[in-house]
Specification:
With about 725 residues, this protein is an alpha+beta fold. Among the domains are: about 150 residues, Glutamine synthetase, N-terminal domain (Ubiquitin-like (UB roll)); about 210 residues, no CATH class. The protein contains 25 helices and 19 strands. Helix 17 crosses helix 18 and helix 22 runs antiparallel to helix 23. The radius of gyration is 28 Å and the shape is globular. The two termini are about 25 Å apart.
Length: about 725
């Protein structure tokens, strides 16, 4: 089937598609977490003593003794089998953004040749997948490739139902046989522990006597596109790269914002309902769904949860989103920029820190004492973003996200902090020593003797800021839609731990000199702001003026590409940060640079190969065929003494030649194999391959606008974005 035939057939299939039956959803109270072996299910299935032990393990991280582990495993097996399960899997998250599984059966045979089911505590706690199958960043060699998974009881097991059956999924960490972290979960757990330890110091110095374990929380706003699978199957770039490498902009895109405010397309609504029912059965609190800025783009936002559980749920959400979309005849695109010229997709990570005794420490409190704590933790975030801005840029670095950062729908690649008018004024007053009482109208009442009575800032959100305070949490807006939230959470938790340790040291010294706590807090925060206040910015982050001032006047870094960003993992300050907090050893950190760099290079090289292939085998034949038909028509008309301009023929021929010349240059650049360093290889990708791919695309997109629609081989933007 020719390209244009498949395109026409796709349109016919989609427009004549029978609506998928919409089944009535069951009440939430009947389906919520029914496929989750959480504390509620455990309480029903376990003895009182066993439940008490596992509850303590879940809530505090206490070690589970082997006898209790056996009891929990047996109960988990019985519960899973009652739901039709025959296999179990330790599910884990390698250093890429994928989810990995290794399935085993409950079945064993006895001496009589009969089959029985068995699941022991040792099988629950530990698994052994082949470590050589996953990126490791030189942490081990193939002849020492054993890897281990270990059950993470703080994230509940669940049953995953697919068309092929049901499987018990056990959230796990993944490590080498020598104990190094090969995944994203171990650093997240370590970072939370480091943050808790540092926060305890600060709160103790502030006079708190009862301090529960602190945890970070996360709520991630997931954006995505839906494209009909018939279109996707006719686009090799969508299938292999997750984005369109060719495509002229349609006459109408997102200019009118009509799609954003309009009703969700009926077919998409059915998908969303089905998808969210699956989420509810797995205890994932999907709270909001709506159209997004671009046509064919949507968003789902779960309610916030403890960071570790939220990270697991976010991975599961992406998996379910793709599989459910397929059931509805869609391809779900999680790429950050699947369509040029329209809004890209992000994953805004809402992050806060708190516990059961002090509450959310990034929420302004009702008393001056509470607000002193709030200002210290808010100040710690400011210091962290300023000191480790390049690290925050590195953890959201990818070939895909580079297309989005800095565009008008995404924050710039300059890490700054937005606080809102009220809070920014307070910190500036602290910096300058102006502890003056403010006028009413929502501003704080500041006085040295009775400080900090204020309300949440009622001001507008600054959507141009990559790191914005939104009333009781910070929103990291630069995270990419396809990325795991674990990397950003690890960086934020760890930088916060470092800043809180710095604050604790300074605070202890000032208090020892005889200052009261209020004065001590102001003294410490004043020093903090003098050192790190340049990172606070409340203006237009998209403006060229800010891009210049940020670098030249404030000393911030503009880091446009992943090739520029990823070397931050090798900076001495970053190595020291992770080593001192116990989150990542130097070897573990170095492995992440290697893995992320390799992923970046591979992504761009795969795209370059796709560009070459599509230009050679699809676009060039179509344009030559059209030129032939035009030339034949011109010749026939000339025989009839009818003269027409050859300008169009000349234009198409020139664009075709230019496209193929660019293809030749891209092919030659792609053949380069020897580089002095990983950094040099990444820079070649960023500054040679990417511009050459854009050069090929510019000519191809120009041809799309002049070649006969009947001959164009690829589904067009106007079709993929608007036909649902």
């Amino acid at each position: 089937m020719s390209g244009m035939t498949s395109r026409k057939n796709a349109i016919t299939e989609i427009t004549n598609r029978a609506p998928k039956a919409c089944k009535m959803p069951e009440p939430l109270n009947k389906i919520w977490a029914t496929d989750v072996f959480g504390l509620a299910a455990m309480e029903e299935a376990l003895s009182k003593n066993a439940f008490k032990a596992i509850k303590k393990t879940v809530q505090t991280g206490a070690t589970l003794d082997p006898a209790t582990a056996d009891i929990v495993a047996a109960a988990m097996k019985d519960w899973a089998i009652s739901k039709g399960v025959k296999f179990f899997s330790h599910i884990f998250y390698p250093m890429t953004n994928i989810t990995a599984e290794k399935h085993d059966g409950f079945i064993i045979t006895n001496s009589d040749g009969g089959a029985i089911t068995e699941f022991t505590g040792s099988l629950l706690i530990k698994g052994e997948p082949d470590g050589s199958s996953f990126p490791n960043g030189s942490l081990r060699m193939t002849n020492a490739a054993r890897g281990y998974t270990a059950w993470d009881p703080t994230s509940p097991a669940y049953v995953m139902h697919t068309a092929n059956g049901a499987t018990l999924m056990i959230p796990s960490v993944f490590m080498s046989w020598t104990g190094e972290a090969l995944d994203k979960k171990i650093p997240l757990l370590r970072s939370n522990k480091a943050m808790d330890k540092a926060a305890q110091k600060v709160l103790s110095l502030m006079g708190e006597t009862e301090i529960a374990t602190l945890n970070s929380s996360c709520g991630a706003e997931q954006e995505y596109f839906l494209v009909d699978e018939h279109f996707a199957n006719a686009r090799p770039d969508l299938l292999l790269a997750g984005r369109t490498l060719f495509g002229a902009p349609p006459a109408k895109g997102q200019q009118f914002d009509d799609h954003y405010f309009g009703a969700i397309p009926a077919r998409v609504q059915v998908f969303m309902q089905d998808f969210e029912d699956k989420l509810y059965r797995l205890g994932i609190p999907a709270k909001t769904h709506h159209n997004e800025v671009a046509p064919g783009q949507f968003e789902i936002a779960p309610y916030f949860e403890a960071a570790n559980v939220a990270a697991d749920h976010q991975q599961l959400l992406m998996t379910l989103m793709k599989s459910t979309a397929k059931e509805h005849g869609f391809l779900c695109l999680l790429h950050e920029k699947p369509f040029a010229g329209v809004n890209g997709s992000g994953k805004h990570v809402n992050w806060s820190v708190g516990n059961a005794t002090q509450g959310n420490l990034l929420d302004p409190g009702s008393t001056p004492h509470d607000n002193l704590n709030f200002l210290l933790f808010c100040g710690a975030v400011i210091r962290g973003v300023h000191k480790y801005g390049p690290l925050l840029r590195a953890v959201i670095a990818s070939a895909a996200n580079d297309h989005r950062l800095g565009a008008n729908e995404a924050p710039p690649a300059i890490l700054s902090v937005y606080l809102g008018t009220q809070l920014e004024s307070v910190f500036n007053d602290i910096k300058e020593g102006k502890l003056l009482e403010k006028a009413k109208g929502g501003l704080m009442d500041l006085g040295l003797s009775q400080i900090l009575q204020f309300e949440r800032d009622p001001g507008d959100r600054n959507r141009t800021s990559p790191f914005a305070f939104t009333g009781n949490r910070f929103e990291f807006r630069a995270v990419g839609s396809s990325q795991s939230v674990s990397g950003p959470l690890v960086a934020m938790n760890t930088m916060l731990a470092d800043s809180l340790n710095w604050i604790a040291e300074k605070l202890e010294a000032v208090i020892a000199e005889g200052e009261d706590k209020t004065s001590a807090v102001i003294t410490v925060l004043q020093e903090l702001m003098q050192l790190h206040g340049n990172v606070i910015f409340g203006g237009d982050g998209y403006s060229s003026e800010w891009h210049k001032a940020a670098v030249e006047e404030r000393g911030l870094k503009n880091i446009p590409t992943s090739a520029d960003a990823l070397p931050a993992f090798k900076e001495e300050s970053v190595v020291k940060l992770f080593e001192s907090t116990g989150v990542l050893s130097p070897a573990e950190l170095a492995s992440r640079f290697e893995v992320y760099a390799e992923q970046y290079v591979l992504s761009i090289e795969v795209e370059a190969k796709i560009v070459i292939g599509m230009a050679n085998t699809r676009i060039y034949p179509a344009t030559v065929k059209y030129l032939d038909s035009l030339s034949s028509a011109a010749t026939n008309l000339s025989a009839l003494n009818i003269t027409i301009s050859h300008n169009s023929i000349d234009e198409i021929a020139a664009e075709t030649d230019a496209m193929m010349a660019a293809v030749s240059k891209l092919k030659e650049a792609l053949s380069v194999e020897e580089f002095d360093s990983t950094e040099a290889h990444m820079n070649h990708c960023a500054h040679v391959l990417c511009p050459l791919m854009l050069e090929v695309r510019s000519h191809a997109d120009a041809l799309e606008l002049v070649v006969s629609d009947d001959l164009w081989p690829l589904p067009k933007y106007q079709e993929m974005l608007f036909i649902k």
